[in-house]
Amino acid sequence: MFRFAKAPTYLLVSALLSSSFTAQADNFNALPEIGTTAASTLTIEKEMEYGDAYMRMLRASMPVISDPLLSEYIQDLGHRLVANANDVRTPFNFFMIQNREINAFAFFGGHVAIHSGLFLHAQSESELASVVAHEIAHITQRHLARSMEDQAKKSPATMAALIGSLMLAIASPEAGIAAIHATTAASAQGQINYTRSNEKEADRIGIATLAKSGFNVQAMPRFFGRLADQYRYASTPPAMLLTHPLPESRISDTRSRANQFPAKRVSTSERYQHARARIVARYAGIDSEAALDWFNRQLKKANAQQKNALNYGKALVYIDSGKYQQAHELLDPLMAAEPNNRFYIDSATDLDLYEKKYDQAITRLERALKDNPNNKVLRLNLAHALQKAGRSTESISILTRYTYDNTNDTNGWHLLAQAYADNGRRDAELASRAELMALRGQWDKAIQHYIQASQLVEVDSLDQARYDARIDQLRLARARVANL
């Protein structure tokens, strides 16, 4: 699969604590108390506005993993849990950040982030799901809004700054602590951490969600216990333990609750194993030799199912290292055994494109799409293969529909911009790049790109009318964010 350079990591403190939040502080303080938990601070609609704004900032400032296969996996896992959760009031969006720190966090609007490092420490899909289920519970129970409500009562003068620092703290605890020290003299622990009752509530609800979703509920106390043991005496605990402390009482409570459910044997998830192998090969921040050493050590103790995923991971390392023959030796038998496995189709496409076997790649993808015509991974792969084959015009029709269906997917806009560039359509290229900037909250740049696009097309044409209408929409979106 095509891969794009990741955005550099910038400090979010200045943006989150900017004066754009200040005007809203008085409005928050003036809201009446009507008795509903968190209602006096934020409505669901306002939470979604904050969540959308913060998601755009994260895209611009953190190394969000845009890998379509991993996005598909984590979205499917998350929505399997959401389908069995109670009190769901918002849509949910699950995404991954390339970071070896063990962490996951949730924020307004149903957004849940999972660090890639979590895959390296979770030893089963149920363990990973236990963390995700816990974060889902934080959202359904509106713990962040309730925390903000509590802080608003204690220090109303700093409400605007607390919005920024609280949201920063859940994503980057050390920076959040610094931000809160800059805005209030109150205890940093009390300001940024969910309360113990919140944590226990999220554990309790998360375990119930795990059980209804068909996962092993014992995975939560097992993972929490192993994490606590590993970092019990560490001078610098992982980010997850800064915002989600693990006292023995909490681990005991999760173990007690898990024991209330009947024992359940859960089979190993092939997709989880393949996703984990892909992360080790491409997103663990280690060189090819270290990755191969990890796969070889794991292969010595793996069962047959795990061996397929581990050999797939080794094939990825060989592909990325330009060792195509070694990659073929591992990948070809896997493809022969499971020709519909999208992890294998994606990697076989990579190999074909590197070896300039464009027709072979396109034929394979078109065949796969007949069985699964709306699959995002296959559609993006086909568009990319067509571009590599010099058939960008054909890819435009695919990507136009794709970006219409998936407006928040940066992959589609990246490829569409490139396709228009290949075809010499500068106005459409600028418009596509403007959408990328808007997804990162870079409103001024997005508007300027659309203005340039409008100036390049015929006056009073349909394209100009469309570009001008989009300029108006972006200006309204910019104003809404400013009003937050």
Distance between the termini: 38 Å
Order of SSEs, N→C?
A: HHHEHEEEHHHHHHHHHHHHHHHHHHHHHH
How much is the average pLDDT? 82
Measured by DSSP, the beta-strand proportion falls in under 5%
- Overall geometry comes to flat
Total E-strand runs: 4
Helix content estimate: 55-70%
Can you summarize the main beta sheet? 4 strands, mixed
Structural class: mainly alpha
Cα-atom Rg, whole angstroms?
Answer: 24 Å
The count of helical stretches stands at 26
Which strands sit side by side, in order, in the main sheet?
1-2-4-3
Low-confidence parts lasting 5 or more residues at pLDDT below 50?
4-39, 171-194
Quick structural overview:
The chain has a domain of 246 residues.
Note down, in words, how this protein is organized.
- The chain is built from 26 helices and 4 strands.
- The chain has helices at 13-16, 22-30, 44-61, 68-82, 117-121, 125-140, 143-154, 159-171, 173-183, 188-192, 196-212, 219-230, 239-243, 248-258, 270-282, 288-299, 304-320, 324-337, 342-354, 358-371, 376-388, 392-405, 410-422, 426-439, 443-456, 462-483, and strands spanning 64-65, 93-97, 104-107, 111-115.
- A hairpin with a 3-residue loop joins strand 3 (104-107) and strand 4 (111-115).
- The protein is flat and about 70 Å long.
